[in-house]
Amino acid sequence: NDRVLAGVAHVIFVGKVTKKISQTMGETGPLTQFDVQVIQNIKGVLSGNVVMNQEGGYENGILSVVEDQPLLRVGTTYLFAARTDGKGNYLLIPYQRARMVISTDKKLTSAQLSALAATDKNVLAMQEAYKNEIPFQIDVELNNDINSYTSTQLE
Predict the structure, then answer these.
(1) From the centroid of its chain, how far is CA 116?
(2) CB 80 within 8 Å of CB 36
(3) Between the CA of residue 139 and those of 9, 53, 87, 96, 147, what are the distances in Å?
(4) 155: closest CA among 15, 81, 14, 45?
(5) d(CA 115, CA 39)
(6) pLDDT tens, position by position, 97-135
(7) Residues in contact with 37: Cβ distance below 8 Å, sequence separation at least 6, in sequence order
(8) Residue 34's closest CA among 48, 24, 22, 46?
(9) pTM of the model
(10) Is 113 within 8 Å of 14 (Cβ atoms)?
């Protein structure tokens, strides 16, 4: 349900993976970091490039992934839904609809990708879902419902 995903996510945006940065060991296994160029915001206000952390990576030469989600691909543009720790670190939510491919064309410019995103059915659906998001109750209780649609309308 996109409305639930929008409520769980702190940020939702279109971004192009520019490079793999590194891999570390997270709490539950490998964590791979990617540099992502922000193309268009849906929830939250990001600009420039951000580091996207994805659970999964290589451990002892064997690829380990979460929820059968392959690692992000350099040069691919995705619609991302992620959470943040509030310190500029973003973690990709491990659901299929939290990382939908917009384009695999590495040569498209930011303007071309923005135009493509403006008509993408998944982007349009997520924009609508954000307006009608179902807040993540734990975040509401802990006052951690960052960028909730309701709070942005009060500003």
Answers:
(1) 18
(2) yes
(3) 10, 20, 17, 22, 11
(4) 45
(5) 10
(6) 999 999 999 999 999 999 999 999 999 999 999 999 988
(7) 15, 16, 18, 48, 49, 110
(8) 22
(9) 0.90
(10) yes
Q: How far apart are CA 9 and CA 98, in angstroms?
A: 9
pLDDT at 151: 64
Return the structure tokens found at 53. 């952390």
CA-nearest of 36, 55, 61 to 46 is 36
Residue 50 near residue 62 (C-beta atoms within 8 A): no
- Bridge partners of 86? none
Helix (H, G, I), strand (E, B) or coil at 127: helix
Beta bridge mates, 15: 38, 78
